[in-house]
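**User:** You know discrete backbone vocabularies at least as well as I do. Would you mind producing a protein record, from residues through to fold? Write it directly below this note and I will take it from there.

**Assistant:**
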Amino acid sequence: MEAFRGARAGSTQMEQALQAQRTRRLLTGILGGGLGRGLGLVAPFIVMPAMLGYLGDAEFGIWVIAVSLTSMAAFCDLGIGNSLLTKLAAAYGAGDTATMRELIASSYATLTIIALVLTSGAVLVVLGLGLLPGSPVAPQFVPTVLVTLVTFFAGLPSAIIQRVMYAYQQVWLSSLWQVAASLLSIALCLVAIRAALPSWLVILAYSGAPVAMLAVSTAWYFGRYPQLRPRLSDVSRGAARDLLSTGARFLLLSLLVSAALNMDNLVIAHNAGAEAVTQYAVPAKLGSLMGLMITVIGLPFWAASGEAYARRDLGWIRRSALRISLLGALGVAAVGIVLVLFGDLIISLWMRQNFVDQRMTLAMLAGLSIVMALTSPFNMVLNARAQISPQLCVWTLMLAFTAVAKLTFVTATSVWIAPMITMIGYGVIVLPTMYYFAMRR
């Protein structure tokens, strides 16, 4: 009996040590993620005034729309990135290095093929649009759109290394590389503007630097961790099919979420023209500081939940989800209050001009961000479990509601209604459902 009690006590102590270690990694990941993504978000704030002055309102608006398209096109990896993170985190929790290497190699092979196909298609479509009379993509803007889309597609396989670092719960390491990429992006963009290069080269300097840095970080990481280095012999049709199968559901989910959350610029352009996009895009970029906080806090929890779920440590998952939800919402609320109170001054100093209803836009974005912060940890729990079906139902309803409402009510003089509609939909439709499914036993 004493031996049994001793063994049980030892097992409990080991579990507590694992939980403490997982919590430390999670906190380090959140802090490290804040550093990397913070500078990544600062980069547009530094270059946007110079870009607006260099490109002009029309081309700047076209560029913003192209960037919005890449945000909505996050699903173009067929969900493999999200599927990979879920499966790598589970394999890491099980200590299965061979499976991790097989997953990584199969992901590289699949995403490289996808990137080549999408790049070819984007080139043909954009060139075709540039030749159509009355097309929204005027011929002089075709290079701008092409560069933005092609660099995005080229980054699809390159971004696998970030999933690997996150699965290993090395968010701080990924953040260091993001810092380097942001610094390089800022420097190259400003140098290109100073040299009066063509606008498409300026955009290439800005958007191509992160892709180049991902390639460098990939070579460095697999040199440091040779046990994870993918080889051609590690590519597995079975692993690829498994990634695509789970990825297909993540793909549909990503499509729904991206469309629901990133349609604002397109709706404004449809209802009010490209110039109105600029009126909304600048305060929205400032408001994206709150979105950064949500990503920084939530994304490391995805990998940590996956590893904990593989070890059946469900109690830690539930406790941590509630804590992160509340603390994240409080942090986002504090930032939101500052942005609403001082947003006019910040935008005036930053862009040297003000925009229509910018304070109201910031207020609506703050409310939306608070609701998203409350929801984010529960989304991460469901993603870590690959529990996608309930999310698909919720986001289908969310997309339908927001699309109809925004197309109906958003005008050039009321662009702030777009984030307000998203906030209402998120609070009424998404938050309660995600909480229920994530927290039930």
About this structure: The chain has two domains: 25-235, 246-440.
